[in-house]
Design a protein that fits this description.
The complex is a heterodimer of chains A (223) and B (419). By secondary structure, chain A is an alpha+beta fold. Helix content of chain A is 21%, strand content 44%. Chain A folds into 2 domains: 3-95, Nuclear Transport Factor 2, Chain: A; 101-216, Nuclear Transport Factor 2, Chain: A (Roll), CATH 3.10.450. Chain A contains 3 helices and 10 strands; from the N terminus they run βαββββαβαββββ. Chain A has a 5-stranded antiparallel β-sheet. In chain A, helix 1 (13-28) packs across helix 3 (136-153). Chain B is of the alpha/beta class and 419 residues long. Chain B folds into 2 domains: 24-91, Metallocarboxypeptidase-like (Alpha-Beta Plaits); 106-416, Aminopeptidase. In chain B, 40% of the residues lie in helices and 17% in strands. Chain B has an 8-stranded mixed β-sheet, sandwiched between helices. A 4-stranded antiparallel β-sheet of chain B has the order 2-3-1-4. The chains are: A alpha+beta (223), B alpha/beta (419). The A-B interface holds A 7, 9-11, 18, 36-37, 39, 64, 125-130, 161, 163-164, 185, 187, 189-194, 219-223 and B 121-122, 183, 229-230, 232-237, 247, 252, 267, 271-274, 309, 347, 349, 351, 355-358, 384-393, 395.
């Protein structure tokens, strides 16, 4: 049960690191802040009998909107043996302060709250990788929320990334929350599959991001 | 009678060999039916070589008539003596033609120079095929275009050959775009092909390489898939071949090679993104390259370019057994990624496919390696997942720029280590 040192830049360390990053981003992200994996500094794996595989990771995360802003993160990822429907357990600690995004978050919040018609958009980024500045917070919100879906559906032999927002529609709410219905495409690296996934995302500047409902969608028959 | 005399005078007018110099176009307005008739008869005099751009039809409506220079004076006398009103619409037709030709050539020159091609944008298949012809036109003694076969949907498979002569020299093979959604690869391919052509004679490394070796570069290795990413599904990876008995289309061209074909690193399901195909080399896109490299017989390196992940990989993908040349390939990869990182700080990882990214069988580089091509490498270009396949076009030139020294490292090593 001793921990085995793993090459940090190769899999399986890189897969566990991607999962941990997605989870951390979900917990700490907002339309004004997304976290991405910059590097894996160290990785060890522990095989726990009858339980599963536990990864100990030392990561460097970067702020998506400000590449020079990085933080160190230690994380533990436990992939459960056997039962395929339990999400991995993830614990993490971020060293130091993340940039304060209150101003950007409030600007976005007020902008959406005062829209006359509910926001609707598609193909973010577009085929050429473009994201308009107005859509950047919508893009980041999806990035953060996809961290939840990635966490819930990851296994030791999968590595998910958000590939594209196919469609997003704002859902009208009578309370103070913002709600969006997203159809995203996830890219799974090992199988190379593009998986459509629908998710309902709730957000408020003081209450963080929450995925309240999500479901895998069937691939289009014509593709 | 008078009319006949005037016609006789006109007939006597000399005709010239010159095409349009001094020719004029007259706008003539007949005021009654009699004048219409006169104009018609005038036009029928073959010796005058008159050319109605707009025929006389009814009184009051203008007719436009090109008059060759030698007939000008006679025609004007005819019109004036019959009180048919006219004005000069074009003073000199040749001058006008010269102007037009000049401006057409100017805009053609803008299109037709590879220096004006926008390397910082993503292009369609037609634009890329046109650009290839421009590259050949601009560097005719270095670059030629070869068709090595056809895709499933009958698109030509083009390879650019860079050669300074010799006969069947040892050669390096480069390909981009085998997975169509990896748009940064075709874009990098264009930039790199242009760079090779530009730097021959300037950069010492590429010059020594091309002085003794040839380079073969297939930029759109999967044209059907590429066209599909433009027309229908930006995320399309595979070929577009129909799979018998399945509603799902396409084979993964990087699982279709005869190296460890059919293992756990590929799928037997036609609906899968890593479907290996019904048998090795079933895909015409793959077979064309297999046949080309095999019959060439002197290929010393195969470099296949993919995205994304920022990795430089070498055989094997189909087995965990290290390749016999693992150490040398690993050292070379280490150097190449270090020189890549030196440009903008972009970090790549490196190693064998099976150790670094995942198990994959039937890959291009494993086939090449098992068929005697020692220096077989796969690049996975930018990024690491932030944009993935949808890499913004403003990263095309930086990506290509940083990859260039890594490619040179490999090619120089191949040159300096003949086998």
């Amino acid at each position: 049960e001793a921990a085995m040192e793993l090459p940090p830049s190769h899999y399986p360390a890189s897969r566990a690191a991607a999962l941990a990053t997605g989870y951390a981003c979900y917990r700490r992200g907002s339309p004004g802040r997304g976290l991405a994996l910059r590097a894996v500094r160290r990785a060890r794996r522990q095989d726990i009998d009858d339980v599963g595989h536990k990864y100990h990771l030392e990561l460097v995360l970067e702020d998506i909107l400000d590449k020079d802003s990085t933080v160190n993160c230690t994380a533990e990822v436990l992939y459960h043996l056997g039962n395929k429907n339990i999400a991995p357990d993830v614990q993490f600690t971020i060293e130091g302060e993340l940039k304060n995004t209150d101003e950007a978050d409030n600007i976005f919040y007020n902008r959406i709250k005062t829209l006359e018609k509910e926001l609707v958009a598609e193909n973010i980024p577009d085929s050429h990788g473009n994201v308009s500045p107005e859509m950047e917070p919508i893009h980041l919100l999806a990035w953060v929320a996809s961290g939840y879906v990635i966490w819930q559906n990851s296994k030791e032999n999968t590595k998910f990334q958000l590939a594209q927002i196919k469609h997003v529609k704002q859902v009208k709410r009578s309370d103070e929350y913002l709600e969006f219905d997203y159809l995203i495409l996830l890219h799974e690296m090992v199988s190379q599959e593009i998986i459509p996934w629908q998710m309902r995302v709730l957000w408020h500047p003081q209450h963080g991001v929450q995925v309240t409902q999500d479901s895998r969608q069937p691939k289009q028959a014509s593709e | 009678m008078k009319i006949l005399l005037v016609f006789a005078a006109l007939v006597a007018a000399a005709y010239s060999e010159q095409l349009f110099v001094g020719d004029q176009v007259l706008r003539i307005t007949a005021s009654d039916e009699e004048q219409i008739t006169l104009l018609r008869v005038l036009g029928e005099q073959a010796e005058l070589q008159l050319d109605f751009w707009r025929h006389p039809t009814s009184p009051g409506y203008p007719a436009d008539l090109r008059v060759p220079f030698p007939s000008l004076q006679a025609v004007k006398i005819f019109l004036e003596s019959n009180s048919i009103s006219y004005s000069i619409m074009i003073e000199d037709v040749q001058e006008l033609l010269d102007e037009e030709k000049k401006s057409m050539m100017k805009s053609r020159r803008i299109e037709r120079s590879t220096n004006m091609f926008d390397f910082a944008s993503y292009h369609t298949i037609e634009e890329i095929y046109d650009w290839m012809d421009m590259l050949v036109d601009d560097h005719p003694s270095l670059v030629s275009k070869i068709e090595i076969g056809q895709s499933y949907e009958n698109r030509p498979l083009y390879v650019l050959k860079f050669s300074t002569g010799g006969s069947n020299r040892p050669a390096i093979w480069l390909d981009t775009g085998i997975h169509s959604r990896e748009w940064i690869t075709q874009a990098t391919g264009i930039w790199t092909a242009n760079k090779i052509a530009e730097e021959y004679g300037q950069d010492p490394s590429i010059t020594s390489i091309l002085d003794s070796m040839d380079i073969f570069f297939e930029i759109i290795t999967n044209p059907d898939g590429f066209a599909f990413t433009h027309s229908s599904n930006r995320m399309w990876r595979k070929t577009r071949s129909i799979n018998t008995g399945s509603r799902c289309v396409g084979v993964d061209p990087n699982r279709n090679w005869d190296a460890g074909f059919g293992g756990s690193g590929s799928s037997s399901n036609p609906c899968s993104e890593t479907y290996r195909g019904p048998y090795a080399h079933s895909e015409s896109e793959v077979k064309a390259v297999v046949d080309f490299i095999s019959s060439h017989g002197n290929m010393k390196s195969v470099i296949s370019i993919h995205s994304y992940s920022q990795m430089l990989l070498f055989p094997y993908g189909y087995t965990r057994v290290p390749a016999p040349d693992h150490q040398e390939l690993n050292e070379l990869a280490k150097k190449a990624v270090s020189d890549l990182a030196a440009v903008y700080g972009t970090k790549y990882t490196y190693g064998s496919i099976v150790d670094t990214i995942y198990m994959a069988d039937g890959t291009t580089v494993d086939w090449a390696y098992d068929n005697g091509v020692k220096y077989s490498f796969t690049f996975e270009l930018r990024d690491t997942g932030r944009y993935g396949f949808l890499l913004p076009s403003n990263q095309i030139i930086p990506t290509a720029t940083e990859t260039w020294p890594a490619l040179l490292d490999i090619m120089v090593h191949v040159l300096e280590n003949p086998y």
